[in-house]
Design goal:
This protein is α+β, with helices and mostly antiparallel strands. Helix content is about 35%, strand content about 15%. It is built from five helices and six strands; from the N terminus they run ααβααβββββα. β4 (about 90-95) and β5 form a beta hairpin. This is Fur family transcriptional regulator.
């Protein structure tokens, strides 16, 4: 996992200018996996109180386009961001509270699913979302 000192180098390596908002957004995404935009704005504003919503949105867009963060959006959810990129993992989502966790691919190499008909596409990724109920919600439901 990257440390705060790695963030400027990550930005430079992706040919992005190093700015305080970008470093703060990267820090927030690493600190809060699967955070939504409002949570990221809150985390960034604790470090940079003067940062605008637009600066955070612009940073998230640039970081996503550069492949430094990944944007996911499970059905019925707002967009979420994570720092785990360039690997073959999926997500499990709680139907009750919306909690999201990473799930490694069972096969290991990308794409981990082979479609029955690829329609002549060159497939390089498969996005899988498992749905269920997390342990906290299961125990709450079981105690009712």
């Amino acid at each position: 996992m990257a440390t705060t000192l790695d963030f400027p180098q990550l930005l430079r390596g992706a040919a992005l200018r190093v700015t305080r908002p970008r470093v703060a957004v990267l820090s927030a995404v690493y600190a809060y996996p699967h955070a939504d935009t409002d949570s990221i704005i809150g985390a960034v504003r604790r470090e940079l109180p003067e940062v605008s919503h637009q600066a955070v949105y612009d940073s998230l867009h640039a970081l996503t386009a550069a492949g430094l963060v990944r944007r996911i959006q499970p059905s019925g959810s707002v967009a979420r961001y994570e720092s785990r990129v360039r690997d073959n993992h999926h997500h499990v989502v709680c139907r009750s509270c919306g909690r999201i966790a990473d799930v490694d691919c069972a096969v290991g190499e990308a794409p981990c699913l082979t479609p029955s008909d690829d329609s002549a596409f060159s497939i390089d990724e498969a996005e899988v979302i498992y749905w269920g109920v997390c342990p906290d919600c299961s125990s709450t439901t079981g105690n009712s």
